[in-house]
Write a structure and sequence with these properties.
Length: 440
């Protein structure tokens, strides 16, 4: 489709300090991104500018320097650690005479390599096409409007207009397919709610060790590697907690600085597992010098997808790379687990993670004694469907006296829709009076 130079494996990395961010590790992270994409960084070009150059982003002098670097290193591609406009990308390619990719395009390429499931491939293709739709102006510049005349009359469109129409149709088709995927995921979530299973979602900065921890807790065999975005496709597994309760553990895609908005939109159905989780395990690389900044970046993405209010436990991983740190739980003033220090690689502290999950999920459950009248048969059935009935007996006039345990979410829903709180049994009342009837 495009008259663009071919890309190879030898890459020049370009990073400008625009006085916007002070993170020292951005360049190192960009280098790791490039390696994850399968290219070999052969040189790094850095510079300082107050504002991006409208034509080349890096400025004409820096573009000249990069051009000579490309020739000297026989590089095939230039990777820019910033978001480029379509015009800047086209101008750089013409000046450097090689392929140019910005940070967003590089991340999209990594995602395209990693996607394995049908859903993941749909989401990546949607993000790529949405990104590509703004860059069609670079292609087909040699084609004029289709000519008229005998045997040459066409639809009167330029090739660019035709491409935009075809892209728009494909984007619409992908969004329709992803709506179906969201419905299927919602059915799964409803089934888990009916089974009264809490969902615990692993979140964190990319390469923090989420998949390694997930494999240790579930023996799921999810692909885990020391590279950025090793996990794209979400995986869910049932896990038994020390108190005998079961939860569903969800492994999700990692977050990163300046995560492209197109990706957040495309992966919304995947990220919804995080948004609707009962508890988040925020995995942190405890050995990273930038762990504080990484935590802030993850919280920003959680806020963007509407999951900022979900309860969190910080899981500080990779303590095997720290001196004198043993597995332990840090608690707040109420005794609730706040942080758990572990090493997922060697399995140190895994039992503490399960203990912390059990405590937090257990605290989010409601145990009550209820007295239901005979006409509340539907509510009686729902309690058996959604909750755990610890004890049940039939008392005077067909009333049910029940001890039930429900998740806070299910309890609040039944109180709102069915008026469940009206049937709470009081010990100083007879069952009939507690249920609004008359004493026998």
């Amino acid at each position: 489709m495009f008259e663009r130079p071919e890309a190879g494996e030898r890459a020049i990395l370009v990073h400008l300090d625009l006085h916007v961010s002070t993170e020292k590790d951005e360049l190192q992270e960009f280098k790791e991104l490039a390696i994850s994409a399968g290219v070999e960084p052969v040189a790094i070009v850095t510079g300082v500018r107050r504002t991006p150059d409208p034509k080349y982003f890096v400025g004409s002098g820096k573009a000249e320097e990069i051009y000579h670097m490309v020739e000297a290193e026989q590089a095939d591609i230039v990777l820019v650690n910033h978001s480029l406009t379509p015009v800047q990308e086209r101008n750089l390619e013409q000046r450097l005479e090689c392929r140019v990719l910005d940070r967003t395009s590089l991340i999209l390429d990594i995602f395209a390599q990693r996607a394995r499931s049908h859903e993941g491939k749909l989401q990546v293709e949607l993000a790529q096409l949405q990104h590509l739709s703004t860059r069609l102006v670079r292609g087909w510049t040699h084609l004029e409007r289709q000519k008229g005349g005998i045997g040459l009359r066409g639809p009167g469109e330029t090739q660019l207009e035709t491409d935009r129409r075809l892209l728009g149709a494909r984007i619409k088709q992908l969004k329709h397919k992803l709506v179906k995927v969201r419905r299927q995921r919602e059915q799964g979530r409803r089934a888990r709610r009916r089974a009264d299973l809490s969902t615990v979602s692993l979140v964190g900065y990319t390469n923090a060790g989420k998949s390694t921890l997930f494999n240790q807790l579930t023996t799921a065999g999810v692909y885990a590697a020391n590279q950025l975005f090793a996990t794209l496709d979400p995986t869910l597994r049932r896990v038994e907690l020390p108190n005998g309760q079961a939860v569903v553990l969800a492994d999700t895609v990692g977050f990163i600085r300046h995560l492209p908005h197109d990706l957040v939109e495309a992966f919304r159905s995947t990220l919804q597992e995080t948004q609707e989780a009962d508890l988040l395990l925020h995995i942190v690389d405890a050995s990273s010098e930038e762990r504080k900044s990484n935590i802030e970046q993850v919280n920003l993405v959680l806020e963007e997808i509407g999951a900022e209010k979900c309860p969190q436990i910080g899981i500080y991983n990779k303590i095997d790379q720290l001196d004198g740190v043993e597995p332990h739980i840090e608690r707040d003033e109420t005794g609730r687990p706040q942080r758990v220090w572990i090493s997922a690689m060697n399995g140190a502290g895994l039992e503490l993670v399960l203990q912390a999950i059990a405590e937090c999920v257990q605290n989010d459950r409601v145990t009550e004694r209820l007295c239901l009248p005979p006409q509340a048969g539907r509510l009686h059935a729902r309690l058996h469907e959604f909750g755990t009935v610890l004890h049940e007996e039939l008392v005077a006039d067909g009333y049910w006296l029940m001890d039930v345990e429900l998740s806070r979410q299910v309890w609040d829903g039944l109180c709102k829709r069915e008026g469940l709180s009206d049937f709470i049994f009081s010990h100083n009342q007879t069952p009939c009076l507690a249920a609004g009837g008359e004493a026998p």
